[in-house]
Protein: PFL_4695 family integrating conjugative element protein
Amino acid sequence: MKSLIFFLLLITSFVTQAQKLTVLYDTGKATLYNKNSDSDIRLERPDPIKVLESQFPIRSKLWSVEYFKSKKVNFPNMRSPIFLIGCDDTSLAWIQHRKEFIAENRILGFVINCKSYEDYNELKAAIYPIVVQPANLDKLATHLNHSKYPAYIHKEAIEQ
Structure:
């Protein structure tokens, strides 16, 4: 009898714990569904390409393409340098000149001004294998007190 009560308590605890599970990793292959609705109805995840396309155009109010002299900064906790470019000829020439250095060091880049998703794809193809992500980094310009690109930013300086 004691073992039966223990077994029932054990099952009850597993059931209550199962309802509180948290997803730690999602491979992206799972489909979502609403537990309160018909189990045959599945909600489709949005197409990631369409989600990315919806971010364009990326227009920054603060960043502009300009030449600048290196600026010393002190970011001792900055673990990884970044670079900032736009979808323009100046940025493309700048990154082509530094392509080997950027690729070897696997530096993450951000595209901060780009008119369309097609322009973004053309830029990505031209600079492959370098990785760039579209982003509006106006807050970063304010934080750095710097708003000119293309730029390479690391823990000791902002350079061009």
User: Anything to note?
Assistant: Residues 2-18 form the longest helix (17 residues). Residues 2-46 form one domain. The chain has two domains: 2-46, 53-159.
